[in-house]
Specification:
This protein is 30% helix and 35% strand. The protein is of the alpha/beta class.
């Protein structure tokens, strides 16, 4: 299942417009904050599909019956570009466990030719959990598929949510082909074009560089 939430009229599209805008991108703080705010919106939308339980809470004036999530998810992100996005979801899923994966493109001498390398991972046990993997850009989809494979060494989750701000048609197709059926894709917007260097067009550029400076 794919949820493209940018198709709905909401404040989300204001934040997405700003992170695409080359003039607004010069403000790194605003860029990171907008990614964080969009992470919060995704967290809210994803939470609607969780299982809930009934709990009583004692107020100063009596007892209220409330419905709360039965369990918190595991929030995974890909370093370094995903950190502000991850923080946004952690702001809402504040009792969640977190996982971090270091993955990068290792380029060869041929222009546009690269392999994705996964070098480091910190992750709790995922068996029977709800897993959310957040990365702001889904270009070819190769990084996401390799990161998912690496995380599966920590156990099979009940459900996986792939969350990204911008994706290409090609990246969406690759993820759908290579990830299991218990996967839901959440995306802000899907762009048609992917360049020979595997950059999304019109996209927004390199989210990691725009957040933290050029590598």
């Amino acid at each position: 299942m794919i949820h493209e939430i940018g198709r709905q009229n909401s404040i989300f599209n204001q934040f997405l417009r700003e992170i695409r805008d080359k003039n607004t991108q010069t403000d790194r703080l605003r860029f990171r904050r907008n990614m964080e705010r969009m992470g919060e919106i995704f967290a809210y939308e994803i939470s609607k599909g969780f299982d809930y339980k009934t709990e009583e809470v004692v107020t100063p004036l009596g007892t209220a019956v409330m419905r709360t999530p039965e369990r918190m998810p595991v929030l995974a992100t890909i370093l370094r570009a995903g950190l502000p996005f991850h923080q946004g979801m952690l702001n809402y899923f504040d009792h969640a466990d977190s996982a971090f994966v270091s993955a990068y493109r290792k380029h060869s001498k041929n222009e546009g030719d690269f392999k994705v390398k996964v070098e480091y991972m910190s992750c709790p046990d995922l068996k029977g959990r709800e897993l959310i993997i957040a990365d702001p850009m889904l270009a070819t989809g190769a990084s996401m598929v390799l990161v998912h494979k690496a995380l599966m060494a920590k156990g099979a989750p009940d459900h996986v949510h792939i969350v990204t701000l911008l994706a290409s048609d090609e990246g969406i197709a690759f993820v759908r082909k290579n990830l299991p059926e218990n996967t839901t894709i959440w995306v802000g917007a899907i762009d048609d074009e992917l360049t020979a260097q595997a950059y999304i067009v019109p996209g927004l550029g390199d989210a990691g560089d725009l957040s933290y400076g050029c590598k």
